[in-house]
Target: Glutamate synthase, small subunit
Amino acid sequence: MPEKMLKFISLDKEMPKKRDAKNRKQDFHEIYADYIDAKAAEQSSRCSQCGVPFCQQHCPLGNNIPDWLKLTAEGRLEEAYQLSSSTNNMPEICGRICPQDRLCEGSCTIEQSGHGTVTIGAVEKYITDTAFENGWVTPVKPPKERDQSVGIIGAGPAGFAAAEQLRRLGYQVTVYDRYDRAGGLLIYGIPGFKLEKEIVLRREQYLKDSGVEFVYNTDVGNTVTLQELRQKHDSMLIATGVYKARDLNMPGEDAKGVHAALDFLITSNKLSLGDKVERFESGELNAEGKRVVVIGGGDTAMDCVRTAIRQGAKAVTCMYRRDRENMPGSQREVLNAEEEGVKFDWLSAPSSVVEKKTGGVKAVKALRMKLGLPDASGRRSPEPIEGSEYEVKADIVIKALGFSPEDLPQLFNEEALTVNRWGALKVNHANLMTSLDGVFAAGDIMRGASLVVWAVKDGRDAAEHMHKYMKAQAASSKIAAE
Model:
């Protein structure tokens, strides 16, 4: 074993320096500074080079984490980038927004032994940012160009990953998106303090330089039909993500001042991109000077509470029906939110939104909860405590209970496109093909709301299956022509 490794006993875990909460909550810039070369090498050297790397096994992409940590520790950064990017189409993005505390870092062997995890995500981000700065990230140049073309509906992480993989194989790739920019939730859903928009735009430009064509403002089923796209391309991929907000299902939900999380986040992100947004200008989706209650305990809820703080909210409360230990969101994000002034109301289940006589939100009425036996998710089920009703004053209520699929058969005007009982597209899991021949699916629209890293994984897998499908189609056409 090289001397440069196994330093976890002599070196403590050290994350990149975090900006002071008082200063960072004034803007939407990322909160972590970059590693310098020496510090990245030092933290990488803490890796124990396990014979069975649990970090790699708990990464959906199976990233070769110990290997690129070793290369980083040895100062071989370009090789580290080549290895990192061989399994991940956007390591600089996953390094920023993956919940490493639940995945690779949470499974780190030295973390389990009490020495503190290797800072895998921060090193992953550093490697690829350094690669871009040094010109090591070069556009895709396939060994040969193919005549067959692919259409991808959705310019989010699954669409990005599939587009790159298919270009590497020489296919002509066109990505369609209903928004005016590419990136999906990366550009419009995730706030800049977690992922600055220039990082997403840089990845989009890389794909354009690689020969991927982007067509914006394309609403499939309205601007163009799915059938028209199928006739134009040899294979299609649906990677639209899921955008439909889950309802609160309680009295007062339709009150003025109750908003879906994505409406709030898209508005804020558009402002960061320099757009003028009427719903913000009118004050409807502007939290400044207001009391904000966010309902939910996932990463989207954390994005909302921290955005409200930056907009200058008078008070921000996050209501969640379980306790901190049983919440689905990243514990790292909860800590960041607490540092910035968010109040967490644990074991709290909203029962209704109280309206003012003049209209608008006045408060959220809730019940105190206690935890019972574990449910199907493995977390303890919340149970109401009788007679524990109370109110939290609010001017804005944000629903952050997760997302469900939109009705794609109806939106696309394609009844033959089948969905499962949750509304996600049905696929043959052996090849990710939908009920329509040559039409595949990837990401959240197939598996339900999930992580970016899983969308990247799905996009890569779908590209591989589409390649096999188109090769078979080309072979059949050749035989028929002969």
User: Anything to note?
Assistant: Residues 77 and 130 are 8 Å apart (CA to CA). DSSP finds 19 helices and 16 strands in the chain.
